[in-house]
Design a protein that fits this description.
Layout: E1 3-6, E2 13-20, E3 24-30, E4 42-47, E5 54-60, E6 80-83, E7 89-90, E8 95-98, E9 104-112, E10 116-120, H1 127-136, E11 142-148, E12 154-159, E13 170-177, H2 184-200, E14 206-210, H3 215-220, H4 243-257, E15 259-268, E16 278-282, H5 287-304, E17 309-315, H6 328-334, E18 340-344, E19 349-350, E20 353-354, H7 357-376, H8 380-383
Parallel strand pairs: 3-5, 13-14, 13-15, 15-18, 16-17
Antiparallel strand pairs: 1-4, 2-3, 4-10, 5-9, 6-7, 6-10, 8-9, 11-12, 12-14, 16-18, 19-20
Length: 387
């Protein structure tokens, strides 16, 4: 049977070679797309035999080179795949093979059926998934284009109201996801948050959200972390270093004028093999908002326990950055005086539990529930920076 990798826009496999043995092996490496880090991948394998179902082995060569691969194990990674007969599902945990010189590969078993199989690091989330979610909300979430990216792709914002600059201001939450375009677990968690708020907000909260911040990377299949010319999550200085940061900062200013700002949430994913659980980076650089940020982090940790939260939920960004300019969280806490939590959501597992799309959504719903509880219990004023 002849197999080949179908090169399409947004696919992210390079150095592909196929070994058609008893079980066909598809070898590849994730394309770093001119950036220093690689991790995310998504590509399609096609077969001329559309009627036959066959096992395949997906071999990620040089596992050490992906983000977290140098210290992690393929057994902590369950890729996802979708063939012509089945919806997306998880593979079994990966296994390791070694070359004589010590290089490591990660190997996963999938099945091709109906003429193709698509494989990815984690469940994809792009424009199609976002549009499906908006349609499912039945008009609750208002979709507006607030500007364009550096490559002229539309930057979409969702909101549940325009708010008002003068009277009857509500408490507000601003959410952003996919500053690093390959970190799709953050999108699925964000969808859960928004879904819960849609059903339970009762117009008590002004919610604005940027679901696909690094839309160029989402479209191109970039991993997105630290990619050149500038990592979006390090582009928030004065002046901003990317056009997307200018657009989103202007939007946050409009939101801030129309509400009592409670919190900004920034959804991410960590290294490939991280399985400790969901955790949050809290920026404490501004004493005026540090207490509020820590209070919100404690609320989220309690909401996610015991299924989803890492034991060490509250963390500080103590790793070395390639950029000296501020992150989104540093900009929120410092320049805007709004507490911000960067939520990190694992790609595959939490404490050995293999994560489904429903797990991500359920975790997001738990966060949404905790936000509403703070607002309805009248404790929002205690966690909000006084304006």
């Amino acid at each position: 049977m002849k197999f080949e990798v179908d090169a399409r826009p947004g696919d992210n496999a390079c150095n592909v070679h196929i070994h058609e043995n008893d079980v066909c092996e598809v070898h590849f490496m994730p394309d770093p797309h001119a950036g220093p880090e690689s991790l995310w991948f998504y590509f399609r394998i096609i077969s001329c035999d559309t009627d036959r179902e066959s096992p395949l082995q997906i071999v990620l060569e040089n596992f050490d080179n992906i983000l977290g691969g140098s210290w992690g194990e393929p057994s902590k990674v369950n890729i996802v795949f979708r063939n012509g007969r089945d919806d997306w599902k998880r593979s079994a945990p990966g296994r390791q093979t070694d070359s004589p010189d010590g290089r490591r590969n990660g190997v996963w078993d999938v099945e091709i059926a109906g003429g193709f199989v698509e494989v990815a690091l984690c469940y994809p989330y792009g424009i199609i998934e976002l549009d499906n979610f908006i349609a499912h909300s039945k008009g609750y979430w208002i979709k507006d284009v607030i500007g364009v990216s550096q490559c002229a792709n539309q930057l979409v914002r969702l909101s549940n109201s325009c708010g008002t600059k003068t009277v009857n201001k509500k408490p507000g939450i601003y959410l952003i996801a996919r500053q690093h375009s390959g970190e799709t677990p953050g999108s699925w968690l964000l969808q859960g948050v928004l879904d819960y708020l849609r059903n339970n907000c009762n117009d008590e909260l002004l919610v604005w959200c940027i679901p696909l911040a690094n839309i160029d990377g989402v479209t191109n299949g970039d991993f997105g972390k630290d990619n050149f010319p500038y990592d979006l999550n390090r582009a928030w200085g004065i002046p901003p270093m990317r056009h997307e940061a200018i657009v989103i900062k202007n939007d946050i200013a409009r939101w801030k004028d129309r509400c009592f700002p409670l919190l900004c949430i920034d959804a991410h994913a960590p290294c490939a093999c991280d399985e400790e659980g969901i955790f949050g980076f809290v920026n404490l650089s501004s004493p005026e908002v540090s207490e509020s940020a820590l209070q919100w982090a404690a609320v989220f940790k309690d909401a996610l326990l015991p299924e989803y939260s890492a034991e060490r939920f509250i963390r500080m960004m103590d790793y070395k950055s390639r950029w000296e300019t501020p992150s989104f969280g540093e900009m929120c806490a410092g320049e805007l005086q709004i507490p911000c939590i960067a939520i990190e959501v694992p790609y595959s597992q939490i404490k050995g539990r293999i994560l489904s799309r429903n797990d991500y959504i359920q975790a997001g719903q738990l966060l949404g529930k905790s936000i509403i509880a703070v607002v309805k219990n009248g404790t929002a004023g205690k966690t909000r920076t006084e304006m």
